[in-house]
Design goal:
Helix content: 55-70%
Shape: globular
Number of strands: 2
Number of helices: 4
Length: about 90
């Protein structure tokens, strides 16, 4: 967890420096910390299309964890519990 936490925290500083088109948000550090907690989860749900996907790929480059939008998550729940997509 500590390694993921530190990498996530540094990503909130590093990624905007690398990609100047990436907008910096006051919640980026908190969001990156939440990504570090994903070590115990299989799915992270976020509608952020800027920082979170890039940080997710940096922290979990080749894992079985998934990053889903709210719509994708709801669709997945419908598939699993109702047997059909939303």
């Amino acid at each position: 967890f500590t390694e993921k936490y530190l990498r996530a925290w540094l990503a909130s500083v590093y990624l905007p420096l690398k990609d100047h088109s990436l907008k910096v948000d006051k919640n980026d550090r908190v969001d990156s910390e939440q990504l570090a907690f994903l070590i115990w989860a299989d799915v992270f749900v976020s509608d952020d299309l800027g920082f979170i996907p890039r940080a997710f790929k940096l922290l979990y480059p080749s894992s079985d964890k998934e990053l889903l939008t709210s719509e994708q998550f709801i669709s997945r729940l419908n598939e699993v519990y109702c047997g059909h997509p939303a």
